[in-house]
Amino acid sequence: MERLLENMMYSARWILAPIYFGLSFALLALAVKFFQELIHLAPHLLETAEADLILVVLSLVDMALVGGLLVMVMISGYENFVSQLDIDEGKEKLSWLGKMDSGSLKMKVAASIVAISSIHLLKVFMNATNIDNDKLMWYVVIHLTFVVSAFAMGLLDKVGKDKSYD
């Protein structure tokens, strides 16, 4: 009975596979929005003010970072929690494939969230004249919360690794 229960629990990890695959649709939706933004910008490029162009470029960078985060979570999550990917020899293989455990994935996600938040905060500051001071303050507080959280996670991860070698 115990072995059956353990096998069922171990097999249940495959429930995550469609979730990770579903993230590829989110990546596709992000790509559509990315190119929609580029197509929207193209006819107005010469008449767009520099500050507005920078805001659009920051939005594109933001989308690229989120896309990279999705790929990282999709592939690493699948490899860590479902099954290893079987990539044929000679095929292009991502350098971090098979090397990112759940702890390092968590750190990469935290760092990506801080980077995305930084870009969003920069976009807000570039448009600060149109935003209430209260809202600006909350954007900064939220961003600092992400920064402190990522730092604390990194510190805890480092302390945990250092203690495991004792």
TrEMBL record:
Location of the protein in the cell: Cell membrane
Name this protein carries in UniProt: UPF0114 protein BXT89_05050
InterPro entries listed in its UniProt record: UPF0114, UPF0114_bac
UniProt-listed Pfam families: UPF0114
Main subcellular location: membrane
Gene Ontology CC annotations of this record: plasma membrane
Membrane-crossing segments per the record: 12-34, 54-75, 109-130, 136-156
UniProt record similarity statement: Belongs to the UPF0114 family.
UniProt organism field: Halopseudomonas pachastrellae
Keywords: Cell membrane, Membrane, Transmembrane, Transmembrane helix
Membrane topology designation: Multi-pass membrane protein
